[in-house]
Amino acid sequence: MKKYLAVMLTVAMTFALAGCGASGESAEDEKSEGVMTYAEYVAADLDMEVVVETYVQAKQSWWDDKATVYTQDKDGAYFLYDMACSEEDYEKLTPGTKIKVTGYKAEWSGEVEIIDATFEIEDGSYVAEALDVTDLLGSDDLINHQNEFVSFKDMTVEDSGDGAAFLYSWDGSGSDGDDLYFNVSSNGQTYTFTVESYLCDNTTEVYNTVKNLKVGDTVDMEGFLYWYEGVNPHITSVTVK
Q1: Overall average pLDDT of the 39-51 stretch
Q2: Is the dihedral of CA 212, 217, 220, 222 positive or negative?
Q3: Where are the domains of the chain?
Q4: CATH 3.20.20.70: does it fit domain 131-240?
Q5: Distance CA 199, CA 50 (A)
Q6: CA pair distance 241, 238, nearest whole angstrom
Q7: Are the C-beta atoms of 27 and 55 separated by less than 8 Å?
Q8: How confident is the model over 224-240, as a mean pLDDT?
Q9: Which residues contact 237 (CB under 8 A, 6 or more apart)?
Q10: pLDDT of residue 30
Q11: C-alpha distances in Å from residue 214, one per residue of 36, 90, 172, 185, 219
């Protein structure tokens, strides 16, 4: 299930709270000349060159002068995969940083992203507040918020296999430090959520909170609405109620 090969990387914890999280400011509405609106980006064909202005929300990894970054503006979100980026510039990509990105729209197992991209830093700042999408789970509307910073409320932890509340890796074959997969339910439907270890590693609060979950716990969560053969959120915060 994991897209990224195991290599050395820099994991950036880019949230205001210990673990991972975000808070809101307002973004400018006007786009620069030649820059797509979010609606134009959505309408663009796959493999088409796209130019967007967006704001860093979290950094997942950097390796070999390539960065993977979660970004968003007031209208929607853009997942930047393996964007050309020096280590020096990667350090500049703090939460809220405005960047102009030129790359190609691509899709991988349902996840729409921008690849082969370059960027330049611009003036401006915006950090998104989490959008509650609990009621959209199971609906056709949920994908319209792909890659956004979202929240889920009052969900129940379900058995992820043999009575366990989570698995290391998608099939349980991993160990501490790998991605955590766990099942949660709402309104009788069960979904698989992930703590992506490149984004929130085993030193973070969210990673250790999930390791201590029990089947039947009620939880609130925040994270990025990633997609893999269906909804597969990358969770950055879990609160046990």
Answers
A1: 98
A2: positive
A3: 131-240
A4: no
A5: 25
A6: 10
A7: yes
A8: 97
A9: 15, 17, 19, 20, 21, 205, 206, 221, 222, 223
A10: 81
A11: 45, 37, 16, 13, 10
